[in-house]
């Protein structure tokens, strides 16, 4: 079953594809290895998510997704301006597009790191976004946990009176228990 979290990541990838210097070199697969000919390139993934009760009835959760857009490019002087502009393009696109109904991304922080595998030096920029959204809280109930209700009541509010009415409800969840 695909989660809302995955929908948000896939939507972010689609928002970025073809609209930045990275072109179509945008993936949601964190372990994807882009070759040098594919640079600049981006990977969009979720890092963590916190939840809190948003509404009790019906029960809904507020989720705060931490989404990262990792940009990889050559760390050469001729690319410095392009790398900065690429980070700006990502921030602008994700700020202006919704990632679902009432779902917006807000840049929380960015981080730059240089890596030198063998002879080539690469720059990695991580743009970290917070993406709050609301979901239903899924409550799993055993099939026969609440299959029958036996209700006694009286019109005057007194307990254990002989003139009490009684209702018995069965197959509440539609089981044959």
List keywords for this structure.
STM4215-like; 177 residues; five-stranded mixed beta sheet; 2 helices; 17% helix
Commentary on this structure:
By secondary structure, this protein is α+β, with helices and mostly antiparallel strands. The protein folds into 2 domains: 133 residues, STM4215-like (2-Layer Sandwich), CATH 3.30.2000; 38 residues, no CATH class. It has 2 helices and 7 strands; from the N terminus they run αβββαββββ. The strands form 2 sheets. A 5-stranded mixed β-sheet has the order 1-2-3-5-4. The longest helix has 17 residues. The radius of gyration is 26 Å and the shape is rod-shaped. The two termini are 29 Å apart.
Short recap of the structure:
The chain is α+β, with helices and mostly antiparallel strands and 177 residues long. The protein contains two helices and seven strands; from the N terminus they run H-E-E-E-H-E-E-E-E. Helices cover 17% and strands 39% of the residues.
Number of H/I helices: 2
Domain count: 2
- Share of helical residues: 10-25%
For the record, the CATH architecture of the largest domain stands as: 2-Layer Sandwich
Write down the overall geometry.
Answer: rod-shaped
Structural class: alpha+beta
**CATH class identity of the largest domain:** Alpha Beta
| Number of DSSP strand runs | 7
CATH-assigned fold name of the largest domain: STM4215-like
Sheet-strand content, in percent, reads 35-45%
Please describe the topology of this protein.
Layout: H1 4-16, E1 26-27, E2 41-55, E3 60-74, H2 80-96, E4 106-115, E5 122-136, E6 148-153, E7 165-170
Parallel strand pairs: 1-2
Antiparallel strand pairs: 2-3, 3-5, 4-5, 6-7
């Amino acid at each position: 079953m695909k989660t809302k979290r995955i929908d948000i990541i896939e939507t972010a990838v689609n928002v970025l594809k073809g609209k930045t210097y990275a072109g179509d070199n945008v993936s949601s697969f964190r372990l994807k290895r882009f070759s040098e000919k594919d640079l600049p390139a981006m990977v969009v993934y979720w890092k963590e998510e916190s939840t809190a009760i948003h509404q009790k009835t019906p029960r809904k959760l507020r989720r705060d997704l931490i989404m990262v857009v990792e940009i990889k490019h050559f760390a050469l002087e001729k690319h410095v301006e392009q790398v900065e502009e690429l980070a700006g393009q990502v921030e602008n696109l994700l700020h202006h597009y919704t990632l679902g109904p009432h779902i917006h991304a807000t840049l929380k922080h960015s981080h730059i790191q240089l890596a030198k595998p063998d002879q080539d030096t690469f720059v990695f920029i991580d743009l970290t976004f917070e993406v709050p959204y609301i979901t239903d809280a899924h409550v799993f109930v055993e099939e026969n946990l609440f299959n029958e209700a036996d209700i006694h009541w009286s019109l005057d509010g007194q307990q254990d009176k002989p003139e009490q009415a009684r209702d018995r409800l069965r197959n509440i969840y539609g089981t044959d228990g």
